[in-house]
Design brief:
Low-confidence stretches: 107-111
Distance between the termini: 20 Å
CATH architecture: Roll
Radius of gyration: 21 Å
Oligomer: single chain
Structural class: alpha+beta
Order of helices and strands: HEEEHEHEEHHEHH
Shape: elongated
CATH topology: Pnp Oxidase, Chain A
Number of domains: 1
Number of helices: 7
């Protein structure tokens, strides 16, 4: 099995996947446009979260692309398009020096320490079906939801009302909005889960020294 089971998440850990997406919304988008290799681009996504969203909608991802994006043409001609997304959490190189001085109370310490170089990371893989939003009012509402979502941490959040109606209409006609109905939702968290706790502590300390405190905490908590 690849990746090994201890590097995969289960349904009870979906809150971790949601958190990673919320903290790292810029996804790698892969979509087949023709018989050639998948088209790859980088698009921000977020979950529906306004007060009017249904429970089904809250399990969807929201995004938009320029009308020049290859996905836009497929959405407008086909209505629904399968795609894949990868969301990227923090990651770091892990040196074999980690855990070399740890007493794991095991006669064969070499199997428990970090013997070879490796890389730790946290990712979320999503596959789903994208559906175009065509209705002008729904497009406006989607733009409003997205702007409020990404502006929420600004000291003075920008609002659509700051833009003229004419400019908004121009923006709405230049971009394609869509929802993604999630079909598979999987975590790929390689956080030294196969190492003893004492070794993970040293690995977390190394990662902290590289200014990646969130990844370090994930390693401690796994």
């Amino acid at each position: 099995m690849y990746p090994p089971k201890h590097f995969q998440t289960n349904e009870e850990e979906n809150h971790k996947l949601n958190a990673l997406i919320n903290d790292n919304p810029l996804a790698t988008l892969l979509v087949n446009i023709d018989e050639s290799l998948p088209h790859i681009s980088h698009i921000p996504f977020h979950f529906a979260e306004d007060d009017t969203s249904t429970e089904a909608e809250k399990k969807m991802l929201i995004a938009h692309v320029s009308n020049r994006h290859p996905l836009a043409a497929r959405l407008l001609t086909q209505g629904e398009v399968p795609l894949s997304l990868v969301f990227h959490g923090e990651h770091s190189y892990i040196s074999p020096h980690c855990g070399t001085n740890v007493n794991t109370n095991n006669a064969n310490d070499n199997t428990n320490g970090q013997v070879v170089p490796t890389w730790n990371y946290a990712k979320v893989h999503v596959t789903g079906i994208a559906t175009a939003i065509i209705d002008p009012e729904l497009k406006y509402q989607q733009m409003k939801i997205s702007s409020q979502h990404f502006e929420r941490e600004q000291q003075k959040p920008w609002e659509l009302t700051e833009v003229s109606d004419k400019k908004i209409r121009q923006m709405l006609t230049a971009i394609t909005f869509f929802n993604v109905r999630i079909e598979t939702f999987e975590g790929r968290f390689k956080l030294s889960q196969n190492k003893p706790a004492a070794v993970r502590v040293q690995i977390a300390e190394q990662v902290t020294s590289l200014n990646k405190p969130f990844l370090a905490q994930q390693i401690r908590d796994c």
